[in-house]
Design brief:
globular, Four Helix Bundle (Hemerythrin (Met), subunit A), mainly alpha, about 130 residues, binds fe (ii) ion
């Protein structure tokens, strides 16, 4: 069973970032499957992978926003930071053997992803013309 299917509306039209988002999407789906299987070790490994890949992707976005003096950069970067710290909190909860956190982890990450890609990331896309897209 899949957590979500990729939809056209998730595409920003910036190929590099759309590819990053698809990869994050895959990691989320894998994490969802691991929750279904109650495979705590795998969930943890996937959260590590998510944190690592999300950090890489967020840095790329922030670099682009910085290069274009995007006024929303600080707020946007704060959202990124918040996401990463949520993952750490979830991992700590799992380490403490609090299994109730597993489903909320996936629900939270899914909601965050949808909101971020559909709303927050659109903020900088509007400012870029085709020539300045990476
Ligand atoms: Fe972003």
């Amino acid at each position: 069973m899949q957590l979500m299917l990729w939809e056209n509306r998730f595409n920003l039209g910036i190929e590099t970032f759309d590819t990053h988002h698809m990869r994050l999407f895959d990691i989320l789906n894998n994490a969802y499957n691991s929750v279904q299987l109650n495979d705590t070790q795998r969930i943890n490994a996937l959260l590590d992978e998510l944190r690592e890949y999300a950090s890489y992707h967020f840095s790329a976005e922030e670099e682009l926003m910085g290069r274009h003096s995007y006024l929303g950069l600080v707020g946007h970067a704060n959202e990124h930071e918040e996401f990463l710290s949520h993952i750490s909190v979830f991992q700590q909860s799992m380490k403490n053997n609090e299994p109730l956190y597993k489903v909320p982890i996936v629900v939270f990450l899914r909601e965050w992803f949808i909101n971020h890609v559909l709303v927050v990331d659109r903020g900088y896309v509007k400012l870029l013309d085709n020539d300045s897209k990476p």
